[in-house]
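Holo prediction — calcium ion.
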Amino acid sequence: MNCVLLLLPLLAVACCHSTDETLGNDRDMGSTMTHRGGRYQYVSKQMTFLDAELHCKSLGEQGHLACIHSKEINDLILQLGESSGGPVWIGGHRLLKSEHFIWIDGSSWNYNNWAPGEPNFVGGAEECTEMYTSQQRAGSWNDISCSVTRSFICEY
Ligand code: MAN
Ligand code: CA
């Protein structure tokens, strides 16, 4: 009997995290998708890049704004962010005002999907990265000031 009771939480975890591409609603905070063990959550609240990153960290020990390494993940993140009605933060950040970008989790910058003409570093003040979610630019990225507020996608 004890054995069965101990197994129940394990079964619950196995059941809820094994399926790829699960779309569900997370109360009023937006929707969550799992993909190959990674969890992605759309947060509808609009925050600056820093506050958004801090919010993602509060979701889990490994939480951070979504870092994108393939078209597959880019498509998934676009799908999650589409309901925002505007661009969403992703975890790209300009390195020390240079032309180089880094991902906020330290993973390598091995994929990008900049919109035509981007990143253009307007006013020397565009150090964060947003994804457009509508019209012909949907899924492509723009460098933008970190202090504007956006909905965002966490990975945790
Ligand atoms: C336009 C473009 C972008 C830029 C924003 C700033 O959309 O020039 O590259 O980041 O304006 O608001
Ligand atoms: Ca720009």
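READOUT: The radius of gyration is 17 Å.
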